[in-house]
């Protein structure tokens, strides 16, 4: 017994297949219960309305810590899943049914499994997918299985090894049976491997909204008066019934543990092990019990093995004599002494202390050994001690339990230091020892630093779990998942992992290539590109691997680039953009995307400050590059993506075509640099935000994948400019991590009509775009915007009005979710798919980012207090956050505010963890998702002879949200010019010397600009005037 105050021993019904009797153990006058009568909702699904509800309660800290399912067998194996893990694993199961199995809503699935954890996953997965599950006992013979498959017309069956052998003998006579799923450690011809599919499945599933009266399950009767009949149960007769009657049958509470011992085939099992306990948030305890043995009896005994009377504290023992029950392990391997020492009289002593009351309830009192019970996890002190002693600083150590008001207990380690480490800074050494323990043992066991430290005795506390920066949304650590399912249900990394090596090309792209070769991925393309001329490109992952390996060879062999060299990538939405990005990742070359709207001065600045050795661009920008190339001594290679050749440029397409497809991807460290994204230049020239390979790794984390919940069958369209960080995320990293199809339209110019036509023409399921895109679509006055395949939309980059979210939902039927991020952060918070939408909110922090509202000194502010958006960077900088501003240590230090990176944006956070954007602490202008620095526009205006002085601020716009407005003080000789003509002239001038999207759409001529006493322009005053603020 690991947690909880009460364990109700055998508290439900057991239906024996050995006899026709029903044994009731500690039931509560079932016959006298009066069932509730309440209004039945039109829609209900137990998995989403109950399991996901408790998962949310866990994430919000409103459910006691502990498992929802606690499973053991006779070999010492154990599974402990909380509701968050059940939610995630059952979503993966639903994806297995919908994906590899091809099952559709209403299809029937026969489930013949013993008491193994997969039974509960299959049942919940069926509920999520709208499938009808039909449990059956493993004691069935061939004729029983044949009858059930034939009369039910089951499309699929889930079974273990023994039943699978029987199924194969009758399957030819069951024409409806299309899919056979095997739950086993072995393989079997003709059967899909459930555990392998589960491990590979997406953790996010778009749930099926089932009607309350829709069929959920079929239970076969016992057939006492003939052949068994099929009793169909709806979602209301199962789930809603349990929800209405919660507590009336078993009087369960969230802190309770219930042990149902029914065969998994009988309806009392789903009631007692799933519906009743999980409606109440209680824990279901399950023992495999391949054969029922009533001799498995718990007693409270004294030091001599005598059974103590109720109300007396003693040791908890399991009777092992005269016959050792099935389900109890045989003994400690190669440790006869330890095995014998745990035998006391007729009992096996568990080492726990308890009191048993008159009704058979056990009250846990403590432990007799030194085991540490932290949030339900039993941690052996020797494991932590051995890990610590491997570090040269540790002479000796002792690890014990220590009281904690929340977790009950935590681990405390007393460490005696070696003499030459005594002078070390305690805090730095603490971090070093913590990291060391993480590397050599399970990460959840690492010591967290206590607030009190000593020179010779350093105290640490091990706190289970990881600091939850996102109220209402948190994922269980990796070590909690699927502990006995051979890794099934887990992702390769969790939200807080930091593997030493990672490379998106080899770890993600090549993995999907292998899946395609093995026939484990659908034939959808990896990249689907179109233009308005009818041209189309469809590349599979295998083709992407081939082409990006060729690109890698072009960059290294032909161009002579090496790991760490920088490459400027200025391409529109053409297929070659993807090849260059991945080719750089394969070789360790740092790619630097840039928008095709740049002019010569923008390109010159970026090439000079970055020291780029190569550039890849098109015909359009080649002349601009040539005009500045002589001023860029580092630039050695120019690659042209074109159907034509150009003197002084290498032909990219010809080189790729002739290059070898054989290339060995570098083994990049996770913290090695991967890309540089230029910021918008809000306070001067754009800065170089340097990102490592962890930026790509973060897309692999479960929390990040929940933002879009992409799956292999999705076709994802991100409309971001290829020069922005959002394109790298939305058009490359996020969809390909999930194995989805990236859809891309060339769109040389933004046209809402083309976008609408594209949604109707192509099977796009998800979209990511700036709010201005959605606004312009809504303004086209189409009679119908019900796009045939669109399921999910996400937006970010600028403010989204609540009424715009509502209008989009009303006209398209699709919810519009908001996200937030920067060049330095990528997407750092958002309203995750399926999460409650609060119109106007940016959503919640996405792990591993711990985001808080801070003041100017880095102090965390309480809810509903305005402050700066800060991302915690101490004691550990999270994966996915930029490394630093390249060649700008002063600015890097400037944005560090205490333990946080200060984003420079202002916001508040509410009690539920939702962020509300208020504005910017700098003067950046956010027009249609483009962050424009006023200095860039002001500098361009200053080059015109008419302009004596200017100030550029944001101004409200009904379509773009914000536009650039310039307040201009004219030189005297231009004061008599026609304002309209001069406005156009200045606008055209700005377009000619900088990116066209930066030109001021509004111009106001003024006699003077508001300034501070030190002569600085008060842009905030002008901005307030524009937005009608005082």
TrEMBL record:
PROSITE patterns: AMP_BINDING. One of its GO terms (molecular function) is medium-chain fatty acid-CoA ligase activity. Its EC number is 6.2.1.2. InterPro entries: AMP-bd_C (IPR025110), AMP-bd_C_sf (IPR045851), AMP-binding_CS (IPR020845), AMP-dep_synth/lig_dom (IPR000873), ANL_N_sf (IPR042099), Mitochondrial_ACSM (IPR051087). It is an enzyme of class 6 (ligase). Its main location: mitochondrion. It is found in: Mitochondrion. SUPFAM superfamilies: Acetyl-CoA synthetase-like. It catalyses: a medium-chain fatty acid + ATP + CoA = a medium-chain fatty acyl-CoA + AMP + diphosphate. It comes from the Eukaryota. The keyword Membrane does not apply. It holds the Pfam family AMP-binding. Residues 383-459, 936-1016 form the AMP-binding enzyme C-terminal domain. Residues 59-286, 525-872 form the AMP-dependent synthetase/ligase domain. Keywords: ATP-binding, Fatty acid metabolism, Ligase, Lipid metabolism, Magnesium, Metal-binding, Mitochondrion, Nucleotide-binding, Transit peptide. Its cofactor is Mn(2+); Mg(2+). This is medium-chain acyl-CoA ligase.
């Amino acid at each position: 017994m690991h947690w909880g105050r009460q364990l109700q021993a055998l508290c439900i019904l057991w239906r024996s297949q050995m006899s026709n009797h029903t044994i009731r153990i500690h039931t509560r006058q079932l016959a006298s219960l009066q069932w509730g009568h309440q209004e039945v909702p039109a829609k209900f699904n137990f998995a989403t309305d109950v399991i996901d509800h408790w998962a949310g309660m866990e994430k919000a800290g409103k459910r006691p810590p502990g498992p929802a399912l606690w499973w053991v067998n006779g070999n010492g194996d154990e599974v402990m899943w909380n509701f968050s893990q059940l939610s995630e694993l059952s979503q993966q199961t639903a994806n297995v049914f919908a994906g590899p199995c091809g099952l559709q809503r209403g299809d029937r699935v026969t489930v013949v499994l013993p008491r193994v954890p997969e039974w509960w996953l299959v049942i919940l997965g069926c509920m999520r997918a709208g499938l009808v599950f039909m449990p059956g006992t493993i004691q069935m013979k061939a004729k029983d299985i044949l009858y059930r498959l034939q009369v039910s017309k089951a499309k699929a069956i889930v079974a273990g090894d023994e039943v699978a052998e029987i199924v194969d003998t009758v399957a030819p006579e069951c024409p409806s049976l299309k899919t056979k799923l095997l739950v086993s450690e072995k393989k079997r011809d003709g059967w899909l491997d459930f555990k392998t599919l589960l491990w590979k499945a997406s953790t996010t599933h778009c749930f099926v909204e089932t009607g309350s009266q829709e069929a959920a399950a079929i239970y076969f009767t016992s057939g006492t008066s003939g052949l068994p009949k099929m009793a169909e149960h709806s979602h209301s007769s199962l789930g809603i019934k349990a929800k209405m009657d919660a507590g009336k049958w078993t009087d369960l509470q969230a802190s309770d543990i219930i042990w149902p011992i029914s065969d998994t085939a009988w309806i009392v099992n789903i009631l007692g092990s799933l519906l009743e306990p999980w409606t109440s948030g209680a824990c279901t305890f399950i023992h495999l019990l391949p054969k029922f043995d009533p001799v498995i009896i718990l007693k409270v005994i004294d030091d001599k093995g005598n059974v103590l009377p109720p109300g007396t504290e003693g040791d908890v023992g399991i009777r092992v004599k005269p016959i050792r029950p099935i389900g109890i392990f045989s003994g400690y391997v190669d440790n006869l002494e330890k095995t014998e020492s745990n035998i006391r009289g007729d009992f096996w002593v568990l080492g726990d202390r308890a009191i048993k009351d008159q009704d058979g309830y056990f009250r846990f009192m403590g432990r007799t050994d030194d085991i540490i019970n932290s949030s339900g996890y039993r941690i052996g002190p020797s494991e932590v001690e051995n890990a610590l002693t491997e570090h040269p600083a540790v002479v000796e150590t002792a690890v014990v339990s220590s009281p904690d008001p929340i977790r009950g207990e935590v681990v405390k380690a007393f460490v005696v230091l070696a003499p030459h480490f005594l002078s070390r800074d305690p805090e730095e050494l603490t971090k070093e020892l913590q990291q060391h323990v993480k590397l050599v043992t399970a990460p959840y066991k690492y010591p967290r630093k206590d607030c009190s430290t000593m020179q010779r005795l350093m105290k640490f506390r091990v706190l289970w779990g990881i600091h939850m920066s996102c109220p209402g949304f948190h994922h269980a650590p990796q070590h909690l998942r699927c502990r006995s399912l051979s890794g099934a249900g887990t992702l390769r990394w969790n939200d807080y992992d930091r593997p030493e090596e990672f490379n998106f090309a080899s770890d993600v792209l090549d993995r999907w290539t292998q899946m395609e070769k093995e026939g484990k991925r659908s034939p959808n393309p990896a990249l689907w590109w179109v233009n308005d001329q009818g041209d189309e490109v469809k590349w599979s992952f295998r083709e992407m691997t081939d082409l990006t390996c060729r690109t890698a060879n072009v960059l290294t062999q032909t161009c002579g680039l090496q790991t760490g060299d920088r490459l400027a990538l200025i391409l529109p939405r053409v297929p070659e953009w993807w090849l260059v990005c991945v080719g750089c990742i394969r070789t360790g070359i740092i790619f630097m995307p840039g928008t095709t709207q740049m002019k010569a001065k923008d390109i010159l600045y970026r090439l000079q400050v970055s020291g780029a050795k190569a550039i890849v661009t098109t015909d359009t920008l080649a002349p601009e590059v040539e005009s500045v190339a002589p001023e860029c001594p580092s630039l050695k290679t120019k690659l042209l993506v074109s159907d034509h050749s150009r003197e002084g440029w290498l032909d990219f397409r010809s080189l790729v075509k002739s290059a070898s497809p054989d290339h060995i991807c570098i083994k990049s460290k996770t913290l090695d640099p991967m890309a540089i994204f230029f910021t918008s230049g809000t306070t001067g020239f754009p800065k170089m935000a340097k990102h490592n390979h962890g930026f790509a790794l973060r897309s692999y984390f479960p929390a990040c994948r929940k933002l879009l919940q992409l799956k292999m069958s999705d076709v994802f369209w991100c409309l971001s400019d290829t020069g922005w960080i959002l394109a790298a995320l939305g058009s490359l990293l996020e969809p390909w991590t999930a194995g989805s199809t990236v859809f891309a339209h060339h769109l040389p110019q933004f046209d809402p009509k083309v976008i609408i036509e594209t949604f109707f023409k192509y099977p796009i399921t998800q979209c990511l775009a700036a709010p201005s895109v959605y606004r312009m679509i809504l303004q086209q006055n189409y009679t119908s915007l019900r796009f045939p395949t669109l399921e999910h939309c996400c937006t970010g980059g600028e403010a989204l009005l609540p009424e715009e979210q509502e209008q989009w939902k009303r006209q398209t039927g699709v919810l519009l979710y908001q996200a937030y991020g920067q060049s330095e952060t990528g997407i750092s918070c958002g309203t995750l798919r399926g999460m409650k939408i609060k119109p106007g909110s940016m959503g919640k922090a996405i792990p591993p980012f711990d985001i808080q509202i801070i003041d100017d000194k880095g102090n965390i502010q309480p809810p509903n207090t305005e402050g700066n958006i800060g991302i915690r960077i101490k004691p550990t900088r999270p994966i996915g956050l930029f490394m630093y501003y390249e060649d700008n240590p002063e600015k890097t230090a400037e944005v560090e505010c205490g333990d946080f990176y200060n984003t420079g944006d202002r916001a508040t956070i509410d009690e539920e963890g939702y962020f509300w954007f208020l504005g910017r602490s700098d003067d950046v202008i956010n027009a249609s998702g483009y962050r424009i620095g006023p200095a860039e526009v002001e500098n361009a205006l200053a080059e015109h002879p008419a302009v004596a002085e200017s100030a550029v601020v944001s101004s409200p716009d009904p379509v773009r949200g914000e536009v650039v407005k310039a307040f201009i003080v004219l030189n005297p000789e231009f004061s008599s010019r026609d304002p309209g003509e001069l406005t156009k002239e200045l606008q055209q001038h700005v377009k000619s010397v900088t990116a066209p999207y930066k030109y001021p759409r509004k111009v106001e001529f003024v006699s003077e600009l508001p300034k501070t006493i030190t002569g600085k322009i008060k842009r905030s005053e002008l901005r307030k005037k524009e937005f009608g603020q005082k």
